[in-house]
């Protein structure tokens, strides 16, 4: 019954308490026993636990009874850092609603706005929630005013909770059931359509894809086709995360779960592709995702030249799990064979290096990060230059374009002058100013192109 399914995710700025609130959800719904409970339960990677940040999106299914009716709640916990925005945008395409979480002591921040824009692009139902109301410096009224300005909502629409103490968490779950629409019902005979929003490689199971079923159903032993790559596979297993994988007989319309393909060729399963049955399958694929543009490029080379093949295999496997990663082969006279890799930011690069070391035992040399330039030559040929060595002779260059960004800067009112001076020195072009709140401690959002 898809009427009793709710698919939602939590979006917020860094350290506003997404993973802690997800922990409380698991506790309140009884998904995890008290004895097995630990902080940041959905952050599965060691590096996430150590740094206290979320790097990977993580789906989980919870059962909850509201007004005597049992509901199946599929939650996707998302990262807050701008370097992992692609994880957020993929999560949003798999759900119908989003809990917009804001720290009551810090108010609306940059990624609150960035992630909200992504959610509105997908036409999701937004549930505004103030977290950390147990803190002594929590300012519920001021943060509520900022949210009302941002969303144009009523004060009564904003919920308050504390992920740490558990206060108000049940009312957030009830709001998800009441406000988030159930998945759209589709014609059962129209064939299976399932969107791949994440994947990873298992040495025994092959490629395991996380999917959102948007039409039809998928069962074990069925033959399926990946519409983008035209690869076919037999379904070895399907199931859901709770948060460990639990095998099911079938996944139906509206369900979020996993699909074990058994495929060993990593390129055959791509994030954003559509899975359908080989016999009587869907006619058209789902829209998928926009290709992500890397912001920072760096050369990555093995410390030992013999490790090049191992590095290539490792990068292939990481690409499966980290769709925002871009790479192409590169040769350096000093460092030998390696890859020119594109990342969404410096933290993304750092996490990439750390994962290569921990998961694959590889030590690499990374060159100084740079951005890509767009070069037009005198013969009107256009090229994208990602490293200084690739820049053509000065005589043959007509003009060079550098990356240009739309920047929103949130600052307390008393620092507006200094901030504007700093941006002007960096040749930023002023667009306009918005005020997020009124009264004492007023904050402004400056819009720039730079």
From TrEMBL:
Example of a GO MF term: GTPase activity
GO BP term, example: positive regulation of translation
Keyword set, alphabetical order: Elongation factor, GTP-binding, Hydrolase, Nucleotide-binding, Protein biosynthesis
Top-level taxonomic group: Bacteria
Domain Tr-type G: 3-184
Pfam families per UniProt: EFG_C (PF00679), GTP_EFTU (PF00009)
NCBIfam families linked to this entry: lepA, small_GTP
Similarity annotation: Belongs to the TRAFAC class translation factor GTPase superfamily. Classic translation factor GTPase family. LepA subfamily.
PANTHER family in the cross-refs: TRANSLATION FACTOR GUF1 HOMOLOG, CHLOROPLASTIC, TRANSLATION FACTOR GUF1-RELATED
The protein's name in its UniProt record: Elongation factor 4
Organism this protein belongs to: Candidatus Magasanikbacteria bacterium CG10_big_fil_rev_8_21_14_0_10_43_6
């Amino acid at each position: 019954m898809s009427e009793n399914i709710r698919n939602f995710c939590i979006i917020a700025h860094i350290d506003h308490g997404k993973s802690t609130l997800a922990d409380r959800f698991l506790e309140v719904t009884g998904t995890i026993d008290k004895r097995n409970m630990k902080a940041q339960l959905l952050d599965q990677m060691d590096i996430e636990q150590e740094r206290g940040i979320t790097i990977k999106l993580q789906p989980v299914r919870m059962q909850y009874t509201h007004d005597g009716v049992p509901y199946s709640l599929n939650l996707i916990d998302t990262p807050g850092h701008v370097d992992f925005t692609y994880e957020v945008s993929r999560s949003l395409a798999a759900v119908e609603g989003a809990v917009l979480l804001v720290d009551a002591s810090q108010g609306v921040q940059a990624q609150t706005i960035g992630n909200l824009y992504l959610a509105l692009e997908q036409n999701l139902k937004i549930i505004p929630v103030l977290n950390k109301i147990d803190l002594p410096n929590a300012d519920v009224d001021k943060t509520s005013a900022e949210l009302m300005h941002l969303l144009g909502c009523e004060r009564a629409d904003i919920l308050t909770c504390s992920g740490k103490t558990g206060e108000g968490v049940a009312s957030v779950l009830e709001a998800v059931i009441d406000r988030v629409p159930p998945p759209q019902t589709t014609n059962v005979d129209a064939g299976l359509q399932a969107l791949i929003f994440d994947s990873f490689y298992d040495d025994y199971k092959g490629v395991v894809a996380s999917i959102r079923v948007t039409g039809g159903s998928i069962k074990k032993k069925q033959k399926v086709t990946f519409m983008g790559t035209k690869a076919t596979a037999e379904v070895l297993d399907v199931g859901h995360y709770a948060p460990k994988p639990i095998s099911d007989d079938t996944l139906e319309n509206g369900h979020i779960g996993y699909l074990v393909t058994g495929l060993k060729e990593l390129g055959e399963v791509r994030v954003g592709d559509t899975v359908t049955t080989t016999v009587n399958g869907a006619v058209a694929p789902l829209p998928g995702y926009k290709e992500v543009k890397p912001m920072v490029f760096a050369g990555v080379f093995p410390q030992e030249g013999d490790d090049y093949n191992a590095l290539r295999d490792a990068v292939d496997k990481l690409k499966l799990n980290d769709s925002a990663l871009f790479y192409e082969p590169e040769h350096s006279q000093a460092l030998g064979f390696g890859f020119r890799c594109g990342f969404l930011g410096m933290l993304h690069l750092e996490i990439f290096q750390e994962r290569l070391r921990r998961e694959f035992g590889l030590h690499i040399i990374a060159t100084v990060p740079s951005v890509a330039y767009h070069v037009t030559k005198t013969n009107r040929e256009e090229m994208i230059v990602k490293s200084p060595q690739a820049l053509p002779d000065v005589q043959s260059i007509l003009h060079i374009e550098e990356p240009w960004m739309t920047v929103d800067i949130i600052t307390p009112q008393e620092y507006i002058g200094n901030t504007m001076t700093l941006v002007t020195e960096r040749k930023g072009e002023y667009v306009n100013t918005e005020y997020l709140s009124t009264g004492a401690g007023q904050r402004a959002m400056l819009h720039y192109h730079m």
